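Task: complex structure prediction.
Instruction: return C-alpha cells for all chains below.
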Amino acid sequence: MVIKMKPEATEDQKLEVIAFLRELDLTPHRSESGGNTLIGVTGSLEGIQTASFRVLPGVEDVVRITAPYKLVSKHFHDEKTVITFENGVTIGGDEIAVVAGPSAVENEEQIETAAMIVRSMGGKILGGGAFIPRSSPYSFRGLELEGLKLVRKAADNNGLLVISEILDKNHFDDFGEYVDIFQIGPRNMQNFELLKGLGTIDKPVLIKRGLSATIDELLMAAEYVMSSGNHQVMLCERGIRTFEPKTGTTLDISAIPVLMACTHLPILVDPSHAVGIRDRVTPLARAAVAAGADGIIVQVHPFPEKALIDSAQQLYPDQFNQLMKEAKAIAKAIGRTL
Amino acid sequence: MGLIGGSLAAALQKFLPEWEVYGNDFEEILEKALELKYIDVAVKQLEDLPEDIDLLFLGAPITTNIKLLKKIDSLKKWKNLLITDMGSTKESIARVADQLPGNGWWFIGGHPMAGSERGGIDAANPLLFQNAVYVLTPCKTKNPPNEKMAMLINLLYKVGARIIKIPPEFHDRLVAHISHLPYVIAVSLINFIANEEKSELFYQLAAGGYRDLTRIAQSTHAVWNDIFKNNKKNITEAVDDFISYLNALKNFLQKDDFLYELQQAQKIRVKIPAGTKGFLNPLADIRVEVVDKPGVLADITSVLANESINLKDIAILKVRENLAGVLQLSFEDKKIAHKATELLQAKGYKIFS
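Output:
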C-alpha cells in the first residue's frame, strides 16, 4: 500500500500518518518524489481498510499494491536507484557499467593480466570467482580467501572495483574486507536465509536470476534483501532454462523492459553465462545495451583455452575490445554512455 | 627486423592489414623486408619515422634497444607513441625507461616467448606468435593510457599471442632459470665433454639424447652475449644455485639414493605444456628404420615431397655400417609428423616416434 500525501501537506501531518502506521504494527517507508511525499507501507495489511488512511489530514490518495513486492517496486520509490561508489563509478545512471573478468581467479599473474585488460578496454569493475559453485564436488571450486585477496590486489593496482560471488554467511566479514559488490548466484537466488543476512551488510548486492525463476521470484529475492535493511540491490538476467538445447540457457531480453517497468533497481545482464560460447556473447551484449540494461557482465580471460573453468565462454581480449567498441556505439545511439 | 621483428611485421600484414607498417634496419635487411612485403615503408633513419605513429616495436638486441630508446627520447619528435621492446630481459630497459624524461612516449616492456634455431629476417614467419606466450612487463613511471594499452593488447591477440603481465624483476629471475641457465648448461655440456673425450667415438656415439639436450647451443651467440650482459646477476645466482643442487645430487649418488630425484623429474616434465611455444619451438620428430643402401634417402624424401610435406630437419642416426640404421625426420608439428608417418608406413617403412 502506498499513501500519497498532498503537495501542501504539513510535516506534522506526515509524521502523524507515520505514527499511526506504527501503532498498527506496520512499517512506513517515506520517500520524496517530485515534490510529493510518498509513504510506502509494508507489513500485514490483513483486515485493514484503505479508507482509514484516506481520511487522515494531508493524505491525497491511498493505493493498494497488488504485487507481492513493495520496496523494489516503482510505486514505492519513483526515482531510479543509482548505486554510487567512492571512486565515482555509478550503476543505474546514464553510464552503462561494464563488469568484466575471468570466471575464476586462478593465480596472481592471470588475474593481474586480466585486470590490466579490463581497465585498458574501459571496464570499471573486475569480476573474479574465488568461491565457485560447481555442479560437481570434484571440480575446481576456487582459491577461496586467497582468491579474494588476489582479485582485490589486482583491482587496486588497476583502479577497478571488485565483485565476487558469495556462497555462505560465514564469509561476510572476509567479503566485506575485499569486495565492493556481493554477488548472489542463480542457485542462491532463493536462499532466503542468505538473502536476509545480506540485509545487514552495507555494501551493494547483485542478485542473479535463478535458472528457472520467474521475474516475480527475482523481485521477491530483492525484496528479501531490502526488507532486511540493505537497499543497495541490483538485479541480473543471465539466461533461463527453456526447451532449446542449442544454447546453455536462453537469454531473456524481454526481462529488461519488463523489470524496468516494475522496479527502480538497476538491471544488469550476463550474456557469457547465458549462451556459454564466446563467439555468441558479443551480439547478446549489444542486445542487452540496446534493450536498456544498466550494465553488462562479461567474462574475459588472457588465455581462454587454458582457463580452469568455463573455457568455452570466456572472451579473448581482442574480442572484448570489439565488444566494447560495439557496445559504446549502441549506447550512444540510445542516448547513454559507456 | 630480425627473426622476431620480421615475423611481427609479416604477421601484421597477414592479420591486421589495416595497419601501416614502417621498418627500420640496415639497408640490406630493409630491401629484403620490402621484397617480402613484410613492411609498407622502409625508413633508413629513426628520425624519419612519422611523428603520428601509434606503436613502436624495438626488435634489436637489448643493449641496442636501450640506445634506441634514449635516442627517441632525445629527438622529442613524437607525441602519442607507445614504445615496446622484444628483448629477452626486461629489467635493464625498464630502468632506463623510468629514468628518461619521457617526451611524448610511454613504455611497456615485452618479451615474445617464441623463437627458432635460425635467426634473421629469412627465418621470419607470420605464424611465429600463434599460441605463443607474450610477456608484458610494465615499468614504474611510463605506463601508457588505456586506449594505447588496448591497442597493443588487441594487436598482439590478433597475431595469435597470449599475453601475461608480470613485473620486470620477476621476469628476469624466471628466465634466468628456465632459459638462460639451460643455455649455459648446454654450452658447458658440449665444451666440457668434447674436451674430455678427444676421440672419434665421441662424435659417433654422441647422438640422440646428447644432441637434443644441446640443441639450444646452436642459437646465435651474439644474441646470448647480449642477454648475459643484461641479466648477469640473476644468471650468476642461478648458476650458483645449480652448482649447489648438483652437489646435492652427487651426495644422493654416493648414497645410492637417486631414485626419488629421477621419479620427480619424470613427473614434473610431463606437466610442462607441449602446446605453447617456448623460446625454442620443439619440432615433432619421427624415426624411420632404414637399410643402409643407396636410394633410400631419395625414396623417403620423394614420398614426402609428393605430398608437399615440409621436412624441417633430417639426421642419420648411424649405429653400425651396412646394417639397418635410423633416420630421424623433424617436422613443424605433430599433425604433419603424423601425416608423414602414415605416408611412410603405407610405403612399408617402419616408424618409431
